[in-house]
């Protein structure tokens, strides 16, 4: 039952993310800001803390990576107001006030408070707006984030319960469930790194998470090219870190998540068959996770498993692309998403001039 509940919760998060992207005011721009915040914090942490710090025992790299990884709240809190067109000073005030919070609660709080700051910028002039923002924004932002954070962590706990339950059953069922779920979480703001750290995942389950995310990147490299979601830069970016293209992912949830779900389940079984392990938690990230797996397992066995994962992921990329290119499903490209952003910005500018 916990497995079903966790999967349903994950799909609910994916659905809400897509709905927010298309329907919420400043939705696309805010999701792009969230992508930037995740990449500015989680990606350096993955490489510096885990790939370099853990595998090669470079302590200074681990310390720097840990610090950067803990700044998700600050990054989201600063980038979201900037996406609204709020001044850099006010954006940094919001970001710094959210420094102690996790990425997603900070994102939600910054998104909500940005509407208030926009009104303050409009209605309070003569330099007094800075005083008002200083007095109001940090307190309200912290209050909102404090109220939201338990709910976000609760969602992670429910999804994590799915993984915990799966590890207690048949190992190949575990491999399929973990291989399907963890990479999907890695393509949402919840973050697979945060999830696996939260539940303390280690051993073969953590190896499934790590190589599942690597397989996810293998798949998306071919899948994004065949689906023509964007240009070569888009394809390379999603291969390096899926969260860099969160706006495309949230705009096309069905083809991307379904294809990754099927391939990920098989990849999880492959990792289970080869008995690979990762002895540190939080390694559910494509390339840093791959390095750690190589560092903690026999070279030849790991190499064979990775080759099989690459083949499986690439096959499903082509199968998925063929199916969804011929299915009656609207595909949203990066040009379309950016054009919608530009039109919305132009609309705001025209409206502002009309008001004047």
From TrEMBL:
Membrane topology, as annotated: Multi-pass membrane protein
GO molecular function, one term: protein-N(PI)-phosphohistidine-sugar phosphotransferase activity
Biological source species: Ligilactobacillus agilis
Subcellular localization(s) per the UniProt record: Cell membrane
PANTHER family assigned: MEMBRANE PROTEIN, MEMBRANE PROTEIN-RELATED
Biological classification of the source: Bacteria, Bacillati, Bacillota, Bacilli, Lactobacillales
Domain Phosphotransferase system EIIC, residue spans: 29-325
Name of protein: Transcriptional regulator
Superkingdom, taxonomy of origin: Bacteria
């Amino acid at each position: 039952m916990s497995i079903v509940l966790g999967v349903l919760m994950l799909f609910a998060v994916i659905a809400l993310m897509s709905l927010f992207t298309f329907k919420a005011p400043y939705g696309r721009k805010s999701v792009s800001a969230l992508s930037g915040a995740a990449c500015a914090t989680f990606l350096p942490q993955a490489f510096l803390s885990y790939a370099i710090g853990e595998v090669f025992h470079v302590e200074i790299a681990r310390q720097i990576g840990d610090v950067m990884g803990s700044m998700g709240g600050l990054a989201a809190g600063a980038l979201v107001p900037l996406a609204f067109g709020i001044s850099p000073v006010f954006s940094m005030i919001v970001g710094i006030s959210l420094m102690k919070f996790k990425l997603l609660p900070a994102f939600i709080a910054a998104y909500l408070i940005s509407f208030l700051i926009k009104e303050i910028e409009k209605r309070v002039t003569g330099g007094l707006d800075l005083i008002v923002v200083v007095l109001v924004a940090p307190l309200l932002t912290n209050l909102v984030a404090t109220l939201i954070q338990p709910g976000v962590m609760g969602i992670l706990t429910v999804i994590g319960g799915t993984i915990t339950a799966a590890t207690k059953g048949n190992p190949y069922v575990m491999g399929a469930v973990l291989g399907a779920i963890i990479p999907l979480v890695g393509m949402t703001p919840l973050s697979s790194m945060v999830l696996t750290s939260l539940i303390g995942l280690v051993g073969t389950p953590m190896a499934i998470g790590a190589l599942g995310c690597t397989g996810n990147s293998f798949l998306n490299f071919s899948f994004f090219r065949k689906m023509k979601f964007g240009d070569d830069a888009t394809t390379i970016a999603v291969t390096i870190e899926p969260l860099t293209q969160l706006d495309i992912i949230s705009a096309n949830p069905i083809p991307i998540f379904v294809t990754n779900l099927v391939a990920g389940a098989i990849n999880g079984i492959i990792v289970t068959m080869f008995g690979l392990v990762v002895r540190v938690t939080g390694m559910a990230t494509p390339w840093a996770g791959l390095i750690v797996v190589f560092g903690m397992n026999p070279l030849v066995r790991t190499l064979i498993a990775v080759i099989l994962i690459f083949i499986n992921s690439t096959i499903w990329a082509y199968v998925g692309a063929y199916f969804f290119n011929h299915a009656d499903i609207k595909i949203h490209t990066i040009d379309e998403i950016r054009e919608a952003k530009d039109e919305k910005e132009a609309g705001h500018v025209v409206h502002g001039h009309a008001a004047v």
